[in-house]
Amino acid sequence: MFTSSELASIKNILTPDKNIVIITHYNPDGDAIGSSLGLKHFLRQLGIEAEVIVPNDFPKFLKWMPEAKKIIIADYKRKVAGEAIYNADIIFILDFNASHRSGNLVGPWLEKARATKILIDHHQQPDDFDFVYSDVTVPATSQMIYHFIQALEEEDKVNQDIAECLYTGIMTDTGGFRFRSTSATTHRIVANLIEKGADPAMITSNTWDTNTVSRLHLLALILGRIEVVKDGKVAVLYLKRDELKQYGFQKGDTEGFVNYGLSILGTQVSAFFMEDLYEDFIKISFRSKDHVDVNQFSRNHFNGGGHINAAGGKYFKDLEGTIEDFKEKIEDEDF
């Protein structure tokens, strides 16, 4: 958490006359959107308005959240987003640890911005900003937003809108409270959010019970050809660009696919490879169990990073070459 003097400084500058922007990472997920909107609604309870800016569009299954449709998508509204960042007095940087993680468009704007920059994030090795609250032991940035609210002694300001957004972020980033980083504290916060108006059944239904025919076709493809290597410890899944096109892929359709590899008895790592729909690189998602560090593995070999048990990356070979390189590199890992 921020130190007491940092909290005092932040309280001092959080005033209604300030232009405040909240930015999250490229390809926003449930925690990115949940934490950003949760913070926006909290600031409103303090009488302060803020704009949420995301680098690119986010999945439809997250657009039910309160005021999600008011989020500024930089890819679609470049001038509006650029001016908001340029004119900002304060920028909250949520759920990412370095400017370049906000993409080739927003990243340079963020680096040049004259605003006071406040980072709240749970990824490893954060860049230096004016104020930094970084904790890799917390399973979701949305939980960190709740801790921030508590530290400001404003927990009584949490209303239903805040509760729904933060619950969604925590639920999605913990895999439905299944991941190892989920703690007793996480559950206590979730209980508080439910008391404040978050409806678990409604949120789960709106966020996860949203399969489309195209998503199920794609899931059937990868489940039909899962490969297990490294003596049964590593699962490999993949999708080709022409398959994505064939079944009308939309953003969010492959959310959670990588987790199926970990459901296989004996696996310690799951790796999901997908050809980018428009550019010549391979998107990679890694998941692991226990103390197998896919964050460092991704940083070392696949231009990525994340958490110990959940990381992403990208690779600039073709799909076949990427998977072959992965198989060679993972054999050298000791687990």
Automatic annotation (TrEMBL):
Domain annotation DDH: ranges: 19-170
Taxonomic lineage of the native organism: Bacteria, Pseudomonadati, Bacteroidota, Flavobacteriia, Flavobacteriales
Source organism of the structure: Kaistella pullorum
Family matches, as InterPro entries: DDH_dom (IPR001667), DHH_sf (IPR038763), DHHA1_dom (IPR003156), Oligoribo/pAp-PDE_c-di-AMP_PDE (IPR051319)
Name of the protein in question: Bifunctional oligoribonuclease/PAP phosphatase NrnA
PANTHER family from the UniProt entry: BIFUNCTIONAL OLIGORIBONUCLEASE AND PAP PHOSPHATASE NRNA (PTHR47618)
Highest taxon above the source species: Bacteria
Domain DHHA1, first and last residues per copy: 232-332
